[in-house]
Design brief:
The protein is mainly beta. The chain has helices at 124-127, 162-171, and strands at residues 9-12, 42-44, 51-63, 70-81, 90-102, 108-115, 131-137, 140-146, 175-182, 186-192, 205-206, 215-218, 224-232, 250-263.
């Protein structure tokens, strides 16, 4: 394939690629949880001139049906040449966005990690210490998530996720791309993108010199990258009342807008 100049082509990526969606009821003092299930998708973008790009679900852990819980949603970005004999190398760049609704009265904490190297899939459900706890109090069954059985949901802040984050940052050398909050009382879809303000709301904060913008993979030495969105639902009982019961939280990670393809190497593009 002959190229006289750098090729810069764009394709419309899938408008909403749900890596994971979680719906549940919330209140540690009730036993009437009715999780609505989950949805995930694997989607390949339209064929680019020289390479194909995919952004797909890479496992999930969902423990958000009661306060104190956490969730981990994985995604894998991959680039592959269309023709194995093609001597050119290509780089794809894209932005990420988080879309969510959070109608509860509690801000949820989130952190997005990136792992640059191939490795065996991280099975968060196998390594977490977070478990559902219960207590009978005046003939009422109380349920909440915690790393240890403290016996009192009103005194327990919930799961910290330290085992999972240690696995990501120390064993897999993951970088923190961004972090923030899924703000409470959000009844309709709200997006966190590269253009979201890093103000006092805490909804979006950049991490380790990187952010949601300019993620990159290439057919030379970075054909795959893995993204893990860790969400924590703090057990703050002063905010968790019967009005939060049967409220549905939704979270998705997707490519934002277009995927750009160019010949590689291209100076000045990050990872």
């Amino acid at each position: 394939m002959e190229k006289k100049n750098m090729v810069l082509l764009t394709v419309i990526a899938v408008a909403t690629l749900l890596v994971a969606v979680v719906g549940a009821t919330f209140a540690y003092f009730t036993a009437t949880a009715n999780p609505s299930g989950s949805a995930e998708a694997t989607v390949t973008t339209n064929k680019l001139d020289g390479a194909n790009v995919t952004f797909a679900s890479e496992g999930k852990l969902q423990m958000l049906d009661y306060p104190g819980g956490l969730a981990v949603y994985g995604a894998k970005a991959t680039i592959e040449k269309q023709q194995a004999e093609d001597q050119n190398h290509y780089q794809a760049t894209f932005n990420l966005k988080i879309t969510y609704t959070n109608p509860t009265g509690t801000d949820l904490d989130w952190t997005l990690y990136m792992v640059e190297s191939k490795y065996d899939n991280l099975d968060a459900s196998e390594i977490t210490t977070c478990k559902l706890r219960n207590k009978i109090n005046e003939n009422e069954l109380q349920l909440w998530y915690s790393d240890s059985d403290s016996g009192d949901p009103t005194e327990d802040a919930g799961c910290k996720g330290e085992v999972i984050t240690t696995k990501l940052t120390q064993e897999l050398n993951a970088k923190t791309i961004a972090s923030g909050k899924l703000l409470k009382n959000q009844l309709v879809d709200k997006e966190i993108t590269k253009d979201t303000s890093t103000d006092d709301s805490g909804e979006y904060q950049k991490g380790e010199g990187a952010d949601l913008e300019g993620r990159a993979i290439n057919t030379s030495d970075k054909t795959d990258k893995y993204y893990y969105l860790v969400v924590k639902y703090p057990n703050k009982n002063e905010n968790q009342s019967p009005t939060d019961e049967k409220k549905e939280i939704k979270v998705s990670l997707s490519i934002d807008g277009t995927v750009n393809l160019s010949l590689y190497p291209t100076p000045g593009i990050g990872g």
